[in-house]
Design goal:
Blueprint (H helix, E strand, L loop, with lengths): L5 H7 L5 H14 L6 E5 L5 H8 L3 E6 L2 H13 L5 E4 L11 E6 L10 H14 E12 L1 H8 L3 E5 L3 E10 L4 E11 L6 E11 L3 H10 L2 E8 L12 E8 L1 E2 L2 E2 L3
Parallel strand pairs: 1-2, 1-4, 2-3, 4-5
Antiparallel strand pairs: 5-11, 6-7, 7-8, 8-9, 10-11, 12-13
Helix pairs in contact: 2-3, 5-7
């Protein structure tokens, strides 16, 4: 996933402000009384958010299944001499050396899991590796976004050294959105471009389903927010942010 796209991912996603995203994460921690020190950024991609939080003094671990994405992330960290531990791991099977204070999974990464049993496995591992009372913050694209905003649409854009065509196909019965991405990367200083194609799938999950899976994993859902706000989510929310907390392990309530 994102093997070829990793080299140009940041250029295509340059509208994302990791400073603002980190501001939002810190606001949620404060709002929910969390003071984490050691944080796992699950499905960290090219490490933009991981690095920004490291700059702010958090001890960061980044995990992603894509070696190409991690190469980009480690390159950023090296250039800034940032002490970040990066692990190449599938979020459904991740392992840590110990527990952490908070786990993040942003940028609709969980939407890439097309089976709710995979979501359940991630949540179980989150519970396992969170310190008692630790926070889990993640976001999901909604069915509304796939159906009404992306739909069967085509998006395209050009940059200084690259360009892309992004085609969407939404299958409402399965709640699956298919992305067909064709992108072009300039080859050095030559006036020619290399073409790549990748196909990705994401699935929309209902709030009820996610809430049930969190409870089964021993995680308590504390809040659901609209996008990058602390406003309640609605039927027109395109992205929903969830805040959950570890409350029990092995069937026993943890101290709060």
């Amino acid at each position: 996933m994102y093997q070829e796209f990793a080299r140009v991912y940041d250029e295509f996603m340059q509208e994302i402000s990791y400073v603002e995203w980190a501001d939002y994460i810190e606001r949620l921690w404060e709002h929910h009384g969390a003071k984490p020190s050691l944080v796992l950024d699950l499905a960290c991609g090219t490490g933009g958010l991981t690095l920004e939080l490291c700059r702010r003094g958090y001890e960061m671990i980044g995990a992603d299944m894509s070696d190409s994405m991690l190469n980009e992330a480690m390159g950023k960290a090296k250039r800034e001499q940032a002490n970040i531990l990066y692990l190449q791991q599938d979020m459904r099977e991740f392992e840590l050396y110990g527990t952490v204070d908070s786990i993040l999974c942003t940028c609709d990464s969980l939407n890439y899991l097309l089976d709710s049993r995979d979501i359940q496995q991630v949540f179980a591992l989150v519970n396992l590796y969170l310190n008692p009372g630790g926070t889990f913050i993640f976001d999901l694209n909604t069915d509304y976004k796939y159906k009404e905003v992306l739909g069967d649409s085509v998006f395209a854009d050009t940059y200084e050294h690259s360009a892309f065509i992004w085609q969407n196909y939404y299958y409402p019965e399965e709640h699956i959105n298919e992305y067909q991405v064709t992108f072009f990367e300039q080859m050095g200083e030559q006036p020619c471009y290399r073409r790549y194609e990748e196909i990705h799938y994401q699935r929309a999950y209902s709030v009820e389903n996610i809430t049930h899976l969190l409870e089964e994993a021993g995680l308590k859902l504390e809040a659901i927010y609209d996008g990058f706000t602390t406003d309640p989510s609605s039927e027109q929310s395109e992205r929903i942010c969830f805040v959950a907390r570890e409350i029990k392990k092995n069937g026993e309530n943890s101290d709060e």
